[in-house]
């Protein structure tokens, strides 16, 4: 068959009929159509020769259009149904005016589509890159094939008109305007709201109108964009608006005339209540309008945050996208008051946005809204909620492997922090391609077709995550490695403590009631400690070097050999279980250490003559190593979990929500119980007049209790940051403020106690003690560590700074630091340094108290007055 003549194609799109004549003849034909029972929806066709008509019918047949073609009574007529039955017609004489007008009745398929056997989605490839999906799809190509094809510039197309009315009703607005893109919708909405410069638009610094619309808003509206950085890091609040809005008449500033909000932004939902607060404030000003870039507002509604009408009541204009998430080929709609939309229609025409046969797009958009979003203004029965569940599953899978999320997962968007995982975006995409997935670096957006085939997609994505985590590290995870290194550094530090104190004639074993040497030929305690540290360090170095040599940073080998770095735990256990003759830890010392650990682990504390000071030292050291113990637990859990690997990034799915906070709190709880036991002993002693009432022990217990709010609030922050916190998945700013307050109280209280109580320095004492002539200012009379007093002043300042490292290690806001290799070890090392310094001065203080003739006796009861303190001021 020869190609269809150009005249027919032109006629099919209405290009050969003059506009004036077209409107006139349509009016006539509509009346005739009603008389003959035809639908008053028309297409213009033109054919100049009767022999061209079959080609026109061939086009209609390919489109599966049921047609009735009627001509004026003075002309011939014919009827055709699916281009198979053609009636007879009277051929006009050659030279007479050609037939230019007919009726094409095109049924809109979306009103009575057969949902049981829908055809393939026309907006997606036949085979999805993600899952190879083929089957039922939300958008029926037949909708486009059977749509109306009238002119939207003249508002003639019924499909487009009905879509605009439909969306306006959904959002509670008066009118709507179909546009080709979200960028066009934003420009038209903002331009229609603005009047006379100077004017500015207040918007988020990450907003689409600022970053991804080629400066269209500024160039077409003349407005300045006033960028705002939300304090909560998620969405703008009324407080952010008030701090940045310009309402006064200062001629140096550009007055704010529109607030542009984006919902969702980065997949994060702006709560309905916050949108209402901003809208009410804007209306109270009487000068400011509010626009919503709601390209993904469908997602916010599907998440349960509010209905379209509830959100619509907050904004003057809203731009909604039909392609993002809904699956239409393209297009957006701007809704708002009728006068604003009418003005926007003029602007749309001026920038070349007028559409002729828009039905091919608006019919698809209508199906996308009704089928993908759902029914009504709340999207009942839609498919978007499934995509949200899948995105949260993806986010949980990533965090379970130790990954971090840039934003909480509210809708169908999951932002992976690839920097913290130690892998580049390009490499992440490459791994995805190798596993058969097409990824867009750190942003993963789920689609309902992916949800329908999650059994195929999710396992593939999990393999990508596992490979990315293993490859991002290429070595044991930073938590376990930092913990093991810091353990061995602590042993070296304890040896240095013993060595220096031995040189200045302070007998540490006697103070802690540790078994002494049975003969002069036995090595001093510090030598044994050095040997133990050397053994542990050699084991760690050997396991790490062997691991790196065997794996060569190959992800598969990293997982295969992940048992090698774990052997240091076995060595540590062997040192306690297997006696080594003449080794680093003699049998008597091992038994004493195990007995002390058992007693301390239950919160017990020995009497003074049985080693009470040793129990206090050990329990205090455990508070510094709470984070190390939690990290080792996570590492062991990952190693023992089926399918897990100790070489991956830390997996807080291993009890991260409950067990890890309990481990962090346990050492502080032990010291708290010890302080209460000491208080109970004082209260029950028969010689209370020399002991006081025990207030110092209660104050000491209060010091350790300040750790619990920090740990609890940190757990709440971590839970909120991974999407499991509050109802909307965000971290309440009040939680952050409470955490900061708890940190300040804990750090200042413990610093004060170190200086004034544990080290007996007079820095925080009264003026008389602080300025005593027989001692340096703020210190004390007897000092063993040289050069005094300079070293003491430096240590006080250093302790104040290092007291913050404990909470820094817990802070989820500083998790990005773990992306720097060795950063976790540095933080652990700082805490080891602080504890090492504290032990030096605490042991020195205990020695002074016991050796001073007016000091403490062996039973820890004051025999006199020591530096103006009574017993209820003495502390541990």
Q: How many H/I helical runs?
A: 36
* Radius of gyration, taken over Cα atoms and rounded to an integer in Å: 39 Å
Shape: elongated
What percentage of residues falls in helices of 4 or more residues? 40-55%
Number of domains: 4
Q: Tell me the number of strands.
A: 11
Report the structural category: mainly alpha
Main sheet attributes: strand count, strand direction, barrel closure? 7 strands, mixed
Which spans have pLDDT < 50 for at least 5 consecutive residues?
1-49, 65-139, 474-480, 721-730, 815-821, 853-876
The N- to C-terminal Cα distance equals: 102 Å
Averaged pLDDT: 75
β-strand amount: 5-15%
- Strand order of the biggest β-sheet: 3-9-8-7-6-4-5
Membrane topology: Multi-pass membrane protein
Cofactor: pyridoxal 5'-phosphate
Domain EXS: 651-874
GO molecular function, one term: L-allo-threonine aldolase activity
């Amino acid at each position: 068959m020869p190609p269809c003549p150009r005249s027919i194609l032109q006629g099919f799109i209405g290009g050969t009929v003059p506009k004036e004549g077209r409107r006139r003849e349509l009016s006539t034909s509509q009346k005739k159509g009603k008389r003959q029972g035809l639908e008053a929806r028309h297409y213009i066709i033109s054919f100049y020769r009767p022999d061209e008509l079959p080609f026109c019918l061939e086009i209609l047949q390919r489109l599966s259009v049921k047609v009735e073609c009627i001509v004026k009574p003075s002309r011939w007529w014919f009827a055709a149904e699916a281009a198979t039955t053609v009636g007879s017609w009277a051929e006009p004489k050659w030279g007479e005016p050609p037939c230019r007008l007919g009726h094409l009745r095109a049924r809109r398929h979306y009103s009575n589509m057969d949902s049981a056997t829908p055809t393939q989605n026309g907006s997606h490839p036949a085979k999805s890159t993600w899952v190879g999906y083929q089957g039922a799809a939300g958008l029926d190509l037949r909708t486009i094939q059977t749509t109306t094809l009238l002119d939207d510039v003249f508002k003639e197309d019924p499909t487009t008109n009905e879509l605009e009315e439909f969306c306006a009703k959904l959002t509670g607005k008066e009118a709507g305007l179909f546009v080709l893109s979200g960028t066009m919708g934003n420009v038209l909405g903002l331009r229609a709201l603005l009047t006379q410069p100077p004017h500015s638009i207040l918007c988020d610094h990450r907003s689409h109108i600022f970053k991804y619309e080629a400066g269209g808003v500024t160039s077409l509206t003349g407005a300045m964009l006033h960028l705002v950085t939300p304090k909560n890091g998620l969405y703008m609040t009324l407080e952010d608006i008030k701090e940045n809005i310009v309402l006064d008449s200062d001629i140096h500033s550009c007055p704010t005339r529109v607030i542009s909000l984006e919902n969702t932004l980065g997949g994060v939902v702006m709560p309905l209540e916050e949108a209402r607060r901003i809208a009410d404030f804007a209306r109270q000003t009487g000068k400011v309008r509010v626009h919503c870039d709601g390209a993904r507002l469908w997602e916010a509604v599907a998440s349960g945050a509010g209905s379209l009408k509830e959100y619509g009541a907050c904004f003057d204009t809203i731009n909604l996208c039909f392609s993002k998430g809904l699956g239409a080929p393209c297009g957006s709609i701007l809704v708002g008051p009728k006068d604003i939309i009418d003005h926007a229609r003029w602007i749309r025409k001026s920038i070349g946005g007028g559409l002729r046969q828009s039905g091919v797009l608006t019919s698809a958009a209508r199906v996308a809204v009704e089928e993908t979003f759902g029914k009504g203004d709340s999207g009942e029965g839609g498919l978007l909620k499934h995509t949200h569940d899948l995105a949260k599953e993806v986010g949980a899978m990533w965090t379970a492997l130790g990954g971090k999320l840039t934003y909480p997962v509210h809708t169908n968007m999951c932002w992976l922090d690839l920097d913290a995982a130690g892998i580049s975006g390009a490499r992440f995409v490459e791994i995805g391609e190798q596993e058969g997935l097409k990824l867009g670096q750190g942003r993963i957006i789920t689609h309902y077709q992916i949800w329908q085939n999650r059994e195929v997609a999710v396992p593939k994505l999990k393999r990508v995550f596992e490979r990315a985590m293993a490859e991002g590290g290429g070595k044991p995870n930073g938590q376990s490695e930092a913990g093991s290194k810091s353990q061995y550094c602590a042993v070296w530090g304890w040896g240095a403590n013993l060595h220096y104190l031995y040189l200045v004639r302070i007998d540490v074993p006697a103070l802690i009631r540790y078994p002494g040497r049975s003969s002069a030929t036995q090595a001093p305690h510090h030598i044994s400690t050095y040997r133990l540290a050397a053994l542990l360090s050699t084991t760690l170095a050997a396991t790490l070097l062997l691991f790196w040599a065997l794996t060569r940073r190959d992800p598969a080998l990293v997982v295969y050999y992940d048992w090698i770095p774990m052997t240091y735990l076995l060595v540590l256990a062997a040192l306690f279980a297997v006696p080594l003759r003449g080794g680093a830890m003699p049998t008597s010392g091992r038994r004493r250490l195990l007995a002390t650990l058992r007693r301390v682990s239950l919160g017990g504390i020995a009497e003074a003559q049985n080693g009470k000071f040793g129990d206090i030292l050990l329990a205090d050291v455990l508070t510094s190593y709470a984070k190390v113990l939690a990290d080792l637990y996570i590492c062991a859990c990952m190693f023992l979990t089926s399918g897990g690997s100790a070489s991956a990034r830390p997996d807080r799915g291993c009890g991260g929500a409950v067990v890890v906070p309990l481990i962090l709190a346990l050492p502080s709880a032990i010291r708290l119980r010890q302080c209460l036991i000491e208080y109970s002993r004082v209260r029950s002693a028969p010689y209370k007049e020399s002991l006081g009432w025990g207030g110092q022990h209660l104050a000491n217990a209060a010091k350790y209790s300040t750790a619990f709010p920090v740990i609890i609030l940190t757990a709440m922050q971590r839970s909120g940051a991974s999407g499991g916190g509050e109802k909307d998945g965000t971290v309440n700013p009040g939680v952050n403020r409470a955490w900061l307050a708890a940190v300040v109280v804990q750090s200042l209280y413990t610093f004060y106690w170190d200086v004034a109580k544990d080290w007996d320095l007079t820095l925080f004492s009264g003026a008389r003690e602080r300025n005593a002539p027989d001692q340096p200012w703020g210190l004390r009379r007897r000092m063993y560590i040289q050069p005094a007093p300079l070293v003491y002043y430096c240590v006080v300042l250093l302790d104040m700074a290092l007291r913050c490292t404990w909470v820094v290690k817990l802070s989820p806001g500083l998790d990005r630091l773990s992306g720097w290799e060795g950063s976790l070890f540095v933080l652990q090392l700082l805490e080891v340094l602080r504890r090492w310094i504290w032990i030096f001065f605490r042991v020195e203080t205990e020695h002074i108290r016991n050796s001073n003739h007016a000091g403490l006796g062996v039973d820890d009861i004051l025999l006199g007055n020591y530096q103006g303190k009574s017993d209820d001021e003495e502390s541990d």
